[in-house]
Amino acid sequence: MSAENTTEKPAENTTEPVELDDETLAATVVDSETARQVTETLAGVEPKVGVAKPDPILRATGVQRRFGGMTAVDVDHLEVQRGAITALIGPNGAGKTTFFNLLTGFDKPNQGTWEFEGKQIARTSAAKLARSGMVRTFQLTKALSRLTVLQNMLLAAPDNPGENLFGALFRPLWSGVEKRNTEKALEILERFNLAQKKDDFAGSLSGGQRKLLEMARALMTDPAMIMLDEPMAGVNPALVQSLLGHIQALRDDGMTVLFVEHDMHAVRHISDWVVVMAEGRIVAEGPPTSVMQDQAVVDAYLGAHHDTDLGDDSLLDPAVLARLEAEEEKR
Amino acid sequence: MTADRPIASAARRILAVGVAALAAATASAAMLAAPAAASTTDVATTCTPDGTTACVSPVVLDSDNEPLPGIDVTIAGPGFEQVVTSTDGPVSVAVPEVGTYTLTIDEDTLPEGTTANATERQVTAQLGSTARGAFRVGEGVAPEGGGATDEPTEPADGGTSDGAGAGGEGEDTGIGADGSTQNVSGWPAFSQVWQQFGSGIRFGLLLALASVGLSLIYGTTGISAFSHGEQVTLGALLGFISVNWWGLPVPVAVVVTILVCAGTGWLQDMVLWGPLRKRGTPVMQLMIVTIGLSMALQYVIQMFIGGRSQRVLPSNAQPLELAGITLSTASWISMAVAVVVIGAMAWFLTQTRIGQATRAVSDNAALAAATGINPDRIVRIVWIMSTGLAGLSGMLLAISFGSFTWTLGMILLLLMFAAVTLGGMGTAFGALAGSIVIGIVVEMSTLIPGMPSSLRYASGLLILILVLLVRPQGLLGRAVRVG
Amino acid sequence: MDELSRILIQALGQLIAPATAAYALAAIGLNLHFGYTGLLNIGQAGFMLMGAYGFAIATIEGAPFWLAFLVSAGAGALLALLLGIPTLKLRGDYLAIVTISAAEIIRFAGRSTLWADYTGGASGLAGSTYKGPFQALSPLPDGRTTIGPLEYLNNGSDSWWTRIFAWSVVLVAVLLVWLITRSPWGRVLKGIREDEDAVRALGKNVFAYKMQALVLGGVAGSLAGLLFVLPISVAPDNMGRTLTFFVWTVMLLGGAATLFGPVLGAMLFFFVYMLLRTGMRAGLADVMPAQNVEHLAGLMVGVALMCIVIFRPQGILGNKKELAFDVR
């Protein structure tokens, strides 16, 4: 098992650079009713850092996180619009994942407050946050390898009396809930094309399938807001399109999506709003098209390479970036 | 996956050979050890131990280390009780069965104005040997410091005679108690505090030699090496063998000990850790391998010295007072050696290329590899260095404390972990600082009235738990990002 | 030939010995910790010692058997809570470090003179002081019973009654483990073993689950300590680090994260271990003293543990695909 896994992982990371041209990506975009509404709503919002949104689901103020002498995150104010897809982008080391960890309760800030659905959540544990409707995925997929795909799904279902130690002893207490959860899980798996894999160990899935499983699993918790940490990193190009489609479907089902991404191409086409971070701060935000032209973004992202197109794949190859970030993570 | 198969199976073969070689080497070592261990005969006593007889001997000494006659000692054990009166020479009695016996000194028979450093000693009687329990009798309170520091009062111990399987663990400290550890009553005077502070520095320095290695291993490989305690005991054992069996002069013995111990590190990395690294074996699995290794090493050590407590230096310790602290001359020299070696380590880690590379790997292996450092080579150097230093630490500890048993490393492992956690896991200098603190706390904790010396190591655990509650990354460690 | 059959019968006796049951139960507890939840408890002997002291001291103080039984279980639960609170929110090795340290400290405390009035100091507590109420419970008539080649007294320390009781406890434990590990609760534990951050992200209180597993496994450990001392005496020096390592070997031999692995592991381990020791003692009598044979046998256990972990980490019963080791 160990040998298999270690040999499999590098293989994923060395996936051929994703070759997605704008046409294929544009074709992915579903021109849904919800998408039009959201675009319309956000068109009225001024594209400047810290701007207030008409209907924010998440609102963060004065968030700081320091590691030793280095300030990893220093965000003055950020609001996330309900029902929209918001992308959080920025160069490597910009503090995106750290900010993400803070928001989802996986790290504690040095200072700052934020609220989710109007409730203060700055000191709330990650598990409690997830139960209140804000669920996240991870950059390095955390499929529970030695559980089957279906078990992965069932694990995520909330309020199962069988997950209580004493309830666990009496099967009749939880067999009904378990059955309903299984039906729901199979339905979601069907949607993500994983139904025929339901009895396989999650560890045997490909990188892209694990990303899908992680997303499907998150849906089992019936979230109001779903936070995706680099959903495209290390994913086979063939799967990227369907992944993007799934993300949009989440929004069209009424969920709020916040995702961290390197790949500007993907971001441009599916997000309703883009927030750009650099060196721990938010340097720009706005609708995708206007943000791409922002001088601050160009500076932050490309440094000396001013003449390069923002969507240049050779520079922003997600596989390479994922590997770099993975190395950084080990620290 | 398929491409990796040949490598994996080659690594597997190397491993199989390695494990077999280790087993064969240790088994043959046992054969060698058997006659030698059996030949350690006891001084003339009224009870002669042999294959069917176990003896217990109370030893009562005055402040000049001379036998003190006329003191009554009660020997009590399972279904057995006998009062023995000490004489000018050795006294011993045969006991009916192996097991633990309690020796209680009758304080009414002590000379006027004197007290014993302990009223009770526990010994474990074994077939074929004499278990000794020593009492020191002096004027006034327990002979704190004053030249008595290094007399081994720890009796023989360590029965492995239970039928259920696991061997008995034997005596508690594993290090000869210094006879100065039990405070009788009341809060201590400043001189006592100062004296214990000095002992603490000594203990801390010697502990640091071992824990810096533990920390480096953790930093470069991610393994909490549970076998590191036995590596320390191995050093003490080699010191004992090279001085007493081979008759080497002590400085030569120190060098031999370091070299042989470093050799075990090299061997381990050759046949065990190296191939396992190539296979990509997960860290948790490796940690359990260190547990197996620790168990194997422990029994190898027992084959050489059994349950007995052994002295590295045959002669009695010469006390030497410096700055109001009395320790044996050997202790002072050991401390000097430790300071020099730690200084050399610091120089190595900060000034040399390999040392800097070691710290880089410890900081971030992937990044270090990207800059052209070969982590495999660094890890091998770390194993060699760590085991060598652990060996030195063990030998110096045995010299400074007078005697050692096979349990030496077991208790030290606990303190090393406490030190390394306190300093911040993976940071070499944190381990040094942590060790000094732990050494001082352990030695000073004996000043608490009513604290039995065997419980002083509990302070290590206490510190460990407090650190984990308050600052899990340690004093010098950094918080890391999750997820 | 006589020699050989004697050795074989002795080894056979190990299959149902009370000590084997004790190891099996301790390994069941450890399996809950490590096999199902991924907790590195390297101080199972500490839990066993707590249970043994709890049971013996309660009985000596006049408690009836079942109350002493509960005290024993409670002692393990208490230790689990004390060790879990500072460590279960941290990386796995901290639990390992703290448990191995605590087990040693408990042994020191037990053998120290400070509480010798209760613990009996280094010599421990003689069996006769606490076995009375347990042996009085025996429904068996006095006398001896022979089943196959094995013959024991019906009542007393090393008796059929002790064996029946010890294995009944093991059976109940296996049943309970079966019930809880096939439930959604057990699924959460396995999820935590795989990746606790992922489980936390799904809204489960990981700390609480880990604590429940630690307490349950600790209670199994402390009751194993009770079984361990029922036929003998409470001797702290017999319940040190080596005991923990043997329990680990037993669990990994049988197969971590399997239901019957610990039981099979314990039986097989002690059968072979006894065969090895008595065989070597007879075979090597001219070459080395009996003491060294013990050491050699211990050495072989250490090497065997390393080999199991390296070459067959899933043990005898384990599924290679689902072995309990952290693959990260």
Provide structural commentary.
The complex is a heterotrimer of chains A (331), B (483) and C (328). Chain A is α/β, with parallel strands linked by helices and 331 residues long. Chain A has 2 domains: 24-143 and 205-329, P-loop containing nucleotide triphosphate hydrolases (Rossmann fold, 3-Layer(aba) Sandwich); 151-204, no CATH class. Chain A contains 13 helices and 10 strands. In chain A, helix 2 (22-28) runs parallel beside helix 10 and helix 6 packs parallel to helix 8 (207-219). Chain B is an alpha+beta fold and 483 residues long. Chain B has helices at 5-38, 190-221, 228-245, 250-279, 283-305, 329-351, 353-363, 365-370, 375-401, 408-423, 428-444, 458-470, and strands spanning 54-61, 72-77, 80-85, 93-95, 99-105, 114-116, 120-125, 130-139, 310-311, 319-322, 325-328, 403-404. A 4-stranded mixed β-sheet of chain B has the order 4-1-8-6, with no helix packed on it. In chain B, strands 3-2-5-7 form a 4-stranded antiparallel β-sheet, with no helix packed on it. In chain B, strands 9-12 form a two-stranded antiparallel ribbon. The longest helix of chain B is centred in the N-terminal third of the chain and has 34 residues, at 5-38. Mean pLDDT of chain B is 73; it is low at 1-8, 27-45, 140-174 and 176-184. Chain C is mainly α. Chain C has one domain: ABC transporter involved in vitamin B12 uptake, BtuC (Orthogonal Bundle), CATH 1.10.3470. Helices cover 69% and strands 2% of the residues of chain C. Chain C contains 14 helices and 2 strands; from the N terminus they run H-H-H-H-H-H-H-E-E-H-H-H-H-H-H-H. Chain C has a two-stranded antiparallel sheet with strand order 1-2. In chain C, strand 1 (144-147) and strand 2 form a beta hairpin. In chain C, helix 2 (18-37) runs antiparallel to helix 11. The longest helix of chain C is centred in the middle third of the chain and has 24 residues, at 206-229. Chain C starts with a helix and ends in a 17-residue tail after the last helix. Chains in contact: A-B, A-C, B-C.
Outline the secondary-structure elements:
The complex is a heterotrimer of chains A (331), B (483) and C (328).
Chain A lengths: L1 H12 L8 H7 L4 H11 L12 E12 L2 E12 L3 E5 L6 H8 L7 E6 L2 E2 L5 H6 L2 E3 L12 H8 L14 H21 L15 H13 L5 E5 L7 H16 L3 E6 L2 H7 L2 E6 L2 E6 L1 H5 L2 H8 L15 H12 L2
Parallel strand pairs in A: 3-8, 3-9, 6-7, 7-8
Antiparallel strand pairs in A: 1-2, 1-4, 4-5, 9-10
Helix pairs in contact in A: 2-10, 6-8
Chain B lengths: L4 H34 L15 E8 L10 E6 L2 E6 L7 E3 L3 E7 L8 E3 L3 E6 L4 E10 L50 H32 L6 H18 L4 H30 L3 H23 L4 E2 L7 E4 L2 E4 H23 L1 H11 L1 H6 L4 H27 L1 E2 L3 H16 L4 H17 L13 H13 L13
Parallel strand pairs in B: 1-8
Antiparallel strand pairs in B: 1-4, 2-3, 2-5, 5-7, 6-8, 9-12, 10-11
Chain C lengths: L1 H14 L2 H20 L6 H17 L4 H23 L4 H20 L4 H4 L12 H5 L7 E4 L2 E4 L6 H22 L2 H11 L1 H6 L4 H24 L11 H14 L6 H23 L6 H22 L17
Antiparallel strand pairs in C: 1-2
Helix pairs in contact in C: 1-13, 2-8, 2-9, 2-11, 2-12, 2-13, 3-4, 3-5, 3-11, 4-11, 9-11, 12-13, 12-14, 13-14
